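[09:14] KT: can someone run the structure on this one? pasting the chain below
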Amino acid sequence: MKLKVKKLNKDATLPTHGHPGDAGMDFYTVQDVTFPPGKQAKVHTGVAVEIPEGYAGLIWDKSSISFNFGLKVMGGVIDASYRGEIIMNLLNVTEKEVKLEKGHKIAQMLIQKFEHCDILEVDELSETVRGAGREGSTGRK
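[09:31] RB: done, structure tokens below
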């Protein structure tokens, strides 16, 4: 699969794969960004993508960003019809200010095929062993 990427900012870095066979593409910040403790910030990448129809771009944390800086991706489904800038929303879950410089890797995107569902309202759903059980439904803590 080929992914078309358009630079919207001359200083933008195109997404990259860190290693051959990596599932996620790394995206980079096009600006310096500061995250106050416990606050979120929008991080501009300066690029737009053309995701093929029948696929979605799923935004995920970079382990280095979460482990080393305490930043967590908030939200992250990019639909195939979207052609605007990829802007990441990250939350600083630490109690100290975090600064990232322009060009730093901030998050990764996985391109995933999906099935589009027709929504059908029904009066009953089929029975399962689990039923409506949620947390702890296996009896294990």
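[09:33] KT: thanks! Residues 63-69 form the longest helix (7 residues).
[09:34] RB: yep, looked fine to me
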